[in-house]
Design goal:
- With about 120 residues, this protein is mostly beta strands.
- The chain has a domain of about 70 residues.
- Helices cover about 5% and strands about 30% of the residues.
- The relative contact order is 0.26.
């Protein structure tokens, strides 16, 4: 009867085969500019503040990934679910608005946030 001489645990520093690790979006390299703020190697979502004077906010995608301007949720106008008029309406998921490829820019007066990836 032969015995295994190799331990069954993963060595430190070896890459993981866990599928949960592959679902995490990688950090984009480059710069994301929203209005007067520039983010270096952005990851995740960033707020899109609207200017008090009503002018458009400049969004520049100088990263290696696409970005999405997510529109407002508008949850206070959602209808109640059918069957129970007293039940609160579920908040709708944010809807994708405009998608910018790497190197693109736009000016926007709408939107709730900017999502990388």
């Amino acid at each position: 009867m032969s015995r295994w001489k190799r331990p069954l645990t993963r060595f430190a520093g070896t890459p993981s085969d866990d599928p949960a690790d592959s679902r995490t979006p990688a950090t984009a390299s480059g710069f994301l500019t929203i209005g007067d703020t520039t983010y270096i190697d952005p990851e995740g979502s960033y707020p899109l503040d609207h200017r008090a004077d009503g002018s458009a906010t400049l969004v520049i995608n100088d990263t290696d990934r696409q970005i999405t301007i997510v529109t407002e949720r508008n949850s206070h106008h959602s209808p109640a679910p059918p069957g129970d008029p007293t039940a609160p309406a579920p908040a709708p998921a944010p809807a994708a608005g405009l998608v910018l490829a790497p190197g693109e820019r736009t000016e926007t007066r709408g939107g709730d946030s900017v999502r990388v990836g």
